[in-house]
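Researcher: I'm preparing a figure for a lab meeting and need a structural model of a single chain. I don't have an experimental structure, so a prediction will have to do for now. The sequence is pasted below. Please return the structure as C-alpha cells so I can convert it later.
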Amino acid sequence: MSGRNPYDILIRPVLTEKAVRLNEKENKLVFEVAMDANKIEIRKAVEDILGDKVKVKEVRTMIVKPKQKRVGFGKPGYTKKWKKAIVRIESEEPINIAELI
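Model: Understood. Here is the structure written out cell by cell.
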C-alpha cells in the first residue's frame, strides 16, 4: 500500500436498497472510494478496517458519472463524479455495515 490511511481510501459505505440486497444475497459490500485508489489498495483497506473476520474474494470498481440536476430557478447543475467499489467477501453470514460506521 502507498502508505495511505485505509479511511482515506474508503470514503463511505453506500447504503442503498440494491447495496443492502447485494450484501444479504451475495456477500458483497459497496463503498465510495477515492478516485485514485486501485483494486489492490481497496482490498487491503477493506481487510484492515473490517479486521480478521473477512477475507476479500474480488473487487470491482466503476466511475459513477455526474447527473444533471436543477438548482434554484432551473439553473442546471451537476452531481459529483465518484468512484464506486463492489467488494465480494468470504463469510458465512452477511456483515451489518451500518454497525461499522
